[in-house]
């Protein structure tokens, strides 16, 4: 494959695991892209997509654990996973800092995901040659 045909992707996931195919389709795309020599700048979770970063997800044993699969993929490939702070806070997803800030009883952000603002998304769109959205659908 010619070097000029390789891309640096940012993936944006807006659909929640178990209620949409967005996280599953995005993971398949991410694996295929890396296998073809492309790179991933980061994965940005927005809207209900932030549920993918919850450490409290416990699917039945006969179902895939999409948050755990995404966490392993991000760690194995050194790809940043970013949950939008506004979307995360609205949906009860907090890291240590937000737990302390809002005096909440616990945090539930799954590592290696981090919480950040839309500035991360803007930076990603500038750094990537392609931004691909994975929506929940209608």
UniProtKB/TrEMBL annotation:
MF annotations from Gene Ontology: transferase activity
EC number: 2.8.1.-
Compartments reported by the entry: Cytoplasm
Main location: cytoplasm
Keywords: Cytoplasm, Transferase
Matches recorded under InterPro entries: DsrEFH-like (IPR027396), Sulphur_relay_DsrE/F-like (IPR003787), Sulphur_relay_TusD/DsrE (IPR017463)
Keyword Nucleus: no
Pfam families associated with the record: DsrE
UniProt family annotation: Belongs to the DsrE/TusD family.
Protein name, as recorded: Sulfurtransferase complex subunit TusD
Gene name of the record: tusD
